[in-house]
Amino acid sequence: MYRKDAYYKHFKAIFAKFIKNKANKLKHDCFPLYDKNNFSAVSYKYTGNPKEKDNFMFLSFKIKELLVYGKNEKLKNRQYNNELIINFIENNESKARDKIIYEELINFLNDTVENVLINFYKNKEELRSINKDSKCQLYDQYFKKETGISLLENNGFIELLKKYYE
Question: What is the largest distance, in Å, between two alpha-carbon atoms of the chain?
């Protein structure tokens, strides 16, 4: 059963997994001795939010802001843990095994969601993966009829949000 909000959530969950995996890979390459403490998933406050206006706002978030979005210090939730990892990374350049990858990690954490989405769409492996995803294929057929935009085509999600809010 197609619902536009369900498609947004599904698409954003795939994108959030891409962010988490890339951040963890770069962190592991820089700090192999600290491989037990990984970035956690992006909060459902991001992935579960289908509001186009909010998603447009999220485009300007830095990745490190997205990783801590929904942080709760009292509960010491996953986003709180993400903040601890980011603070460690930013304060321990001298412990990084590879300075070039460290710079890449810092740049990634400080990049905007919009830029990372553009890179997500440019990543042939990720694009192939979402185009093979049966839910994405099904949802996208209805979505394209409804909006004239496909989230599976180059920068479709960004194009959709900018269509309404720019």
Answer: 53
Hey, what are 147's tokens?
């909006």
Is 82:39 a contact under the CB 8 Å cutoff?
yes
Give 31-58 pLDDT, tens digit per residue.
998 888 999 999 999 999 999 999 999 9
Tell me how far CA of residue 101 lies from CA of 19, 20, 126, 158, in angstroms.
16, 16, 21, 28
Domain of 34 in residue numbering reads as 4-165
* Helix 113-122 with 124-132: angle, nearest 10 deg: 80
Q: In Å, how far are 15, 51, 145, 153, 158 from 141, measured between CA atoms?
A: 19, 20, 7, 12, 18
* SS3 category, 21: helix
Q: Residues 140-148: contacts with CB within 8 Å, 24+ apart? A: 140/7, 142/2, 143/2, 143/4, 143/7, 146/4
1: tokens are: 């059963």
- How far is 84 from 9, CA to CA, in rounded Å? 27
d(CA 97, CA 69): 28
Give 96-108 pLDDT, tens digit per residue: 999 999 999 999 9
DSSP state of 42: P
Count up the domains in the chain and report the number: 1
